[in-house]
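Re: Re: token formats

Sure, here are both.
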Amino acid sequence: MMVRILTALLLLYSSLAFASEPKVIVAGEILSGKQVDGSNVSAFLGIPFAAAPVGDLRWQGPQKYQPKHDLRDAAEFAPACMQKQRIVDWYRDLAELFGNPRDVVADLPVSEDCLYLNVWSPAIGSSEKLPVMVYIHGGSNRSGWSWEPNYHGHALAQQGVVVVSIAYRLGDFGFFAHPQLDQGPVVANFGLWDQVAALQWIKDHITAFGGDADRITLFGESSGGGNIVALMFAENTDDLFAQVILQSTAGFGLRNVHSLADERQRGVRFAEALGDEGPLTVAQMRGIPADELLQRADNISRGYYHSPVLDGALLSESVSSKLSSGNFHARSMIIGSNAEEWYAYIAEDADAGSEQDLAEEFFPSHATAALAAVAAEPDIRLRMDRLRTAARMLCPGQYFAQKMSAAGADTWMYSFSRTREGRAGNLWRAYHGVELPYVFGTHDEWMETSETDLQVTAATMSYWLHFAKTGNPNGPTTANWPDYSKPGFSVQEINKPVRTIDAPEPELCRLFRDELRISR
């Protein structure tokens, strides 16, 4: 009796403490969020969508979360999934370039207990059901987190949508296989299965936040978009989302895939590298503390790209194979990339030899022709950027858009070319990820943002929001964006001003399609 009385008193005290905060009830648990300052948006942060994947649940599929509280504080972000500080250092480099101290970007808290999502909604307590935008972050499937500063969803939500950002296991915690992991349907792709679990949670519970479970748009950048491509072609995911926006993605989704046999063999080598006196078993590897496993995995798997695996359960066939056969469910989409994705990462002392190597890497059967296609450009770094951006983003995107459009999906393609003003903008140009603060309306305080940047932001957000709301990016305040199937394969160049152009790099993309046929 005394325990029940104390429990009731504690719950009453907690309820009074959280009385002024927005609340929703999900699966019997009261979530207490917070109001975003100066807006009508409520934020619910750090919501668990699956059980903590720790101990024996390491390298298992996501398990159902069992509510532990009557009232849960959902006003703070949860730690990021296990990773090194690579993207933190990237932000610090960028901040320093724009004249700020490196410590303007804080260290990132990480934990193996990381399967949480965040919701921003302007419709708590409303009978209206708003379209839902679910963001999947990038980071090469080994870095990144759902609440990076540019991913906060309040500005989008203020325009009449519910925004969700999700976490998933990364690196060797999330993309791993081993012969001993052979029980049940989930034997690989743990990070991808996490995304499926998050989407199922959203499908089941988003109405509590004022969202429409039948109008879910996925959007993601880089490997996050690549994971969306995998989910588009995965088994039994058709009802989890309606349409997609793929930002700087296509090459990640088309070609980056591993066989289960190869991934299991890598897992064996991984276990051998961890063991001092022979390979460790999966049970022994599960016993290694997360921080230690992260450190050792970072050394063992350095340079390895953690792609989705053809596991026979979630993924049975490669994306390129399904596109070729026409065996896929066509969805409306926006797809595009940035004008100079890789320029900032090309060495300033690049020479003809490195340019030749790059051409042979990305156009192995047509290296000479690829070099000829960019020869008129006097800046060697721009030539190299054109080769890599075309092969990794632009041309796979055009190929993907053409296949989707031919299958009957409404498809729009963009090229984002806005660069920041001043010396820093000239050094980085329209780099990989530059569009993100323009999409979310979340420009960093330490980055100079001009009136032109704000105008480009308004146009970009309008396109993304109208697509989420209506299935078409065109609205009354933006320049008309023709469907990609229109003659000439029109592309919308997002800058100031916005304009419609023909698909860029026609010769390089012709060579890319030839390479794609040869590699099959």
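Second one below.
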Amino acid sequence: MKTQPLNTSDPLQFVWQYGEVQVVVMGGIRLEGLDRLKSTLKVQYKQQVIRTNIDLYNDIQVEKLARKMAVQCSLGTSFTVKLLEELTNELEAHRIKSLQQLEVKKEKKVLSKEDKQEAIAFLSQPNLLQRTNELIGSSGVIGEELNRLLMYLVFTSRKRQYPLHIISLAASGTGKSYLQEKVAALIPDEDKIEMTMLSENAFYYFGQQELRNKFAVD
């Protein structure tokens, strides 16, 4: 049977060709939960199209879909069963590869001995918050002395066990985006995740620990 490798270039829809049957996995698959392989499938054979939600690790669901495909598409049951087996193998391989890539340790930045000593000296001096606020102002964050300090402290709490969260609320054109962007620029890039739009599925493709101790700004 002539098949093509699973195409995962578009994370919103994986495409796989098995003979004359095209299978589109809508929304990709979740990397977490190795005890299940839930998928939203669009199966097309010539003019026949079948859309369904299925857990490919559920034998009853797989058998039911195989029979449905055989009847609606006039294909042999042995063919459709084999198709679903091969699809499961493809998705499993993709998931394992993706998880392995997530496990690759990223190079962690370490402070030099001199930088560490300088930081400890700065933290040990009196009036820490005042001096921190003055440095924030020196970096180019003009005005909003109280808000800029509060926002910076919230952003740095990302390293704590229970990080804080902050929402900027103000009328349009009053500078809340400016303040947020300027203070966010003070956070190291490796700890920062910038998002242009948040929705209920915005965090779908992040690994279970990928956002740990990270700072996400919208």
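The CA atoms of residues 35 and 165 lie 33 Å apart. The mean pLDDT is 86.
- S.
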